[in-house]
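User: Quick sanity check before I run a bigger batch. Here is a single chain. Can you write out its predicted 3D structure?
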Amino acid sequence: MLKEAVEGQLASQKALRKVVDHFPQNSLVSAFGYGSGVFSQSLNDKHEGMLDIILVVDDANQFHEENMDRNPSHYPSWLKLSGAGMANRIQRNYPLKDARVFFQVVDSPVPMKYGVVHKDDLISDLILWDTLYLAGRLHKPTLPILPNTPDEILEAQSRNLQAAVAAALLLFPEEQEEKPIDWSSLFRQIARLSYSGDFRTTIGAEHPEKISKLVDAPGQLRRFQTLYEPVLQPMEEMGLLSNSTSNLEWNSSDQSARKALVKKLPPNVQSYKNADDLAKMLAAIVAPAARHQSFKGVFTLGFRKSITYATAKLQKGLFRKR
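Assistant: Done. Predicted structure follows.
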């Protein structure tokens, strides 16, 4: 059983570690679980969804070489014939702008989608928001699976979370900025950052209440607060904002505070003119990466499996029972 006696948590760290143990360990430096198979995203639905896991490696070629030996069924036939070098090139050197993640969907040991990412590519997205793909995923609560995450990843993630808070505050409409912002509203704004421009949301491959589910499902609000507390406290000490048990306040008319928040954004979005412009800039980052990463699944999953997975996603959104 993957159940864990924590509110809204469907999979324990120990159980996920057993899953990750099925993969080669030599190049694995970090791993985390996320999604509806790890954290409940409904007040009523207790169904254990597909597990989502990200494996962070420091040598993608070595990982794929060893994984093809250990888990050959994870790869389509043509890719097994082409070898680990081709898998590495598809992962890291895909000709179109994508998240540089190699995704696979497997049925054992449990139904699971896992993604392989090189440590350097993850760090780059966390700091620079190259694609806002994994950086956006890590704006939300995840479950660390391995101990001793490298310090450089932890530092990059801290910068990613600071940038997420800054972007969320700067995106609030002016009439909202003068009022206290409750925690649910703040975290919804943060969760929304990486969905803006994502074609999967537009075509109905995501549940229309996805953002609400991410923030308001059992235990999620507390997990968001725990995730962001380490970055909110220093920002409060700097005088950029103040927070209480129920809400957050900041003086949006204070130009020095606004400039300080802008500096926490990645350089590629610091030149925005207003909130609408910032939203468009973020969407322009998210859209091509999400689209191309999804198309890459045809090569990494194989045509039949990619169609099956896409259909399952649509059943959550466009084809869901009303």
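The mean pLDDT is 87.

User: Great, the batch can go ahead then.
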